[in-house]
Amino acid sequence: MLTITAAAEIYCQQAHFASIYQTLNHYINSYPDCELQLDDNGFLQLQADKILAKKPFTIQFSNLIKRLHHIQQRQLHGEFLIKLLGKQQLFIIDGTAGFGRDSFLMAAAGHKIQAYEQNPLIALLLIDALNKPYQDPRILTACKLVNISATRLNSEQLANYPEDATLYIDPMFIHEQRKKVKTEKYSQFLQSLNQHNSHTDSLPNFLTLFAESRLETIIIKQSDHDSRDAALLLNHLGQKVRLHQHVMGSGFAFRKYNKC
After folding, report:
1. Do 254 and 84 meet the contact criterion of CB atoms below 8 Å apart?
2. What is the average pLDDT across 244-252?
3. Distances in whole angstroms, Cα of residue 44 to Cα of each of 65, 72, 134
4. Domains of the chain, start order
5. In what order do the strands lie in the sheet with 34-38?
């Protein structure tokens, strides 16, 4: 069960937290034992002794600042996703925001991001990190977050986005897909937070969303442990695609598919 300290509760009454915080209160009993706190620097953090070995968890992008500067200077060694996106500014729908790293880096590269995160607790931490004063204001402007599952969007809502928008999904850390895979602590923690959530954010559901939408391009991050062929799954949905481009990282790959 999630508990919330008095200081954190007062802090979450701010306008940009209000709707997400109200949603969070409906799901308090669905989380593993952890406490939402406000740290000495004004960041929301989670204390979860059983998972994080008594070290509080928070979302901060200060450790990505060096990568941000490299990306803005187009020094892209090791930045596989940014290379795949290219230099032209894109409108990207990040369907699996998670802890926001990919959204943050894509925004740093100059792309417009609409991010979706269905878990209200993660969304709350992410909104907090994106609104910190040390943040580059251009990133805050470029990156918007919505606290719902992207798979619940309908064709009318997707029609509000640019026709050439790109759907990006990273299903690598979704609980039901990684039960037997050892992961980093933060990934294990994300799994534990999501284990009681509905499994709407799964690869087949995102592929159905893509197949039924007017979107032309989807980028999928898949681990080496995930042998599913997205093109084959889309063909079963009646949507033919071609693998336009892919880049390999260490233990994962980014694959870009275009509709035929």
Report:
1. yes
2. 78
3. 20, 28, 15
4. 66-259 (3.40.50.150)
5. 2-4, 34-38, 44-47
